[in-house]
Amino acid sequence: MEILNEDNKKEIDFIKNQGISYPQHSLEWKKSIEKSYKNCSPIYFLNKNKNSVEGMFPIFLIKSKIFGNRLISLPFIDFGGQIGTFNNKFLKEILNYIEKNQKISKIFCQKRYMPHKHNPLYKKL
Fold first, then answer.
1. Residues 6+ apart with CB under 8 A from 51
2. Residue 42 CB partners (closer than 8 Å, separation 6+)
3. Would the pTM of this model clear 0.90, i.e. be above it?
4. For the structural domain made of 2-124, what CATH number should be given?
C-alpha cells in the first residue's frame, strides 16, 4: 500500500484509465475539495503489486467540532469507494494506517455503490 502523491504519473494514469470510475475519483475532484473545504484532508490509498497499481481507495478526513472527526470516501456525493482491485489485505493496511496516523475514535464503514441498472457505464460492461 502507498499513498498517492501528485508526482506519480503511473498512478495518475491508472485512475484515468479505469473502465469504471467517476469524476469524483479524479485528482481534480481531490483538489477542488481541498481548496473549497479547509476541514477536509484527502488520503488516496493505492493497492500496488510490485511496480503496478491494482486499485485505489480515496478517503477524506473530515474535521468537525459538532460531529467529531470522521473518514468519508468521496464526501458530498452519494456514491464513492474504490476503483480497481480491493482485498482484505489492502483494507487491513488502510485501517492500520488510519489507527497510527489519524485521530479517529471510532471507524464506521458503509459501502455505497451506484446500482448497475442506474449506472451509466453499465451497458459498456
1. 10
2. 30, 33, 34, 58, 59, 60, 61
3. no
4. 3.40.630.30
Residue found under cell 506519480: 8
**Would you kindly state where each structural domain of the chain is located, as residue ranges?**
2-124
- Residue entry with cell 493497492: 47
Summarize pLDDT for 37-88 with one digit per residue, the tens.
Answer: 989 888 888 888 877 788 888 888 888 888 778 888 878 777 667 788 778 8
The three grid cell numbers given for residue 66, joined into one nine-digit string? 459538532
